[in-house]
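Query structure, 314 tokens:
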């Protein structure tokens, strides 16, 4: 029997962003410069395939610094950023640390410091418990920041004296949802001070725009990414809100062919922590059952590159 036809619309941009590339490069370069083991606090990025690959090369992932034995081996902080207390603890222990925090997250950290220095209380739009939120929260004194997740949370905020509030956002949020929350903040607190530009990073915005273009012509959307990856979850939400069923999978073995049903055109994208290798793996798995044709739906081109820290130089 001939295979049924399946057209795959490949979202572009998709997959690795510059911050993720930099974080992975830092671990790999540290292994080259210092040798194994290199310790990494938390997942360097939210992707099991990437983490397992680095483990195989000699990276050791820990939850906290007290799991790291004494010695001159380096410890790397993840791309999501860490509270100020973490490098302070590393310094107190004499640990050689490298910071893989995405520069766009670091920018938010500096904005938070400046707002507090200016006497503002920060309303931070983000997801409670996400590593990026925890890291940003840890840049300012306790009590200087309130985290909200929705428009409904805006109504629950206490009244504030004029000129006393500022707001920032997590970098991996839904662009559309965040705009609604910010609009609600501005409606309630007209003089609230916001960032000069968007905090949501270019890669998050670009991947969501690409998904919007793809699902205009797709019956289903597959998103490759980790279940704890904020930006990947948002990609699935973008499709669902446009009436296109979406599934988040970690790799090809998670494909649900029953869910695909008789779809003739599907979209395929990957979160900012998912390598292109996993995209090709999914396409190959689909090709085993379908007569696949591919079409790239490109909405913009990315050429962002972030420098590596000096400690990883030859």
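Result returned for the query:
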């Amino acid at each position: 029997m001939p295979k049924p036809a399946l057209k795959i619309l490949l979202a572009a941009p998709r997959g690795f962003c510059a911050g993720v590339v930099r974080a992975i490069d830092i671990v790999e370069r540290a292994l080259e410069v210092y040798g194994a083991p290199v310790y990494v606090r938390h997942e360097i990025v939210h992707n099991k395939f990437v983490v397992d690959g680095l483990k195989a090369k000699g990276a050791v992932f820990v939850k906290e610094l007290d799991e790291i034995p004494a010695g001159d081996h380096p410890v790397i902080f993840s791309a999501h950023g860490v509270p100020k207390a973490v490098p302070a603890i590393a310094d107190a222990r004499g640990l050689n640390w490298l910071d893989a925090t995405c520069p766009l997250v670091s920018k938010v950290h500096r904005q938070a410091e400046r707002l507090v220095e200016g006497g503002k209380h920060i309303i931070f739009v983000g997801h409670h418990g996400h590593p990026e939120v925890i890291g940003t929260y840890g840049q300012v004194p306790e009590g200087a920041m309130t985290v909200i997740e929705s428009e409904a949370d805006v109504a629950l905020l206490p009244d504030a004296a004029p000129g006393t509030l500022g707001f920032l956002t997590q970098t991996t949020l839904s662009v559309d949802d965040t705009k609604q929350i910010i609009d609600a903040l501005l409606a309630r607190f007209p003089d609230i001070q916001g960032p000069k530009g968007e905090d949501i990073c270019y890669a998050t915005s670009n991947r969501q725009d690409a998904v919007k273009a793809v699902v205009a012509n797709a019956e289903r959307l597959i998103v490759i990414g980790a279940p704890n990856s904020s930006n990947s979850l948002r990609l699935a939400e973008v499709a669902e809100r446009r009436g296109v069923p979406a599934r988040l999978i970690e790799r090809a073995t998670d494909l649900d062919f029953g869910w695909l049903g008789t779809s003739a055109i599907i979209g395929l994208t990957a979160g900012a922590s998912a390598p292109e290798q996993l995209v090709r793996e999914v396409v190959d798995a689909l090709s085993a059952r379908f007569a696949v044709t591919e079409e790239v739906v490109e909405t913009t081109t990315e050429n962002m590159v972030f420098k590596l820290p000096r400690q990883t130089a030859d």
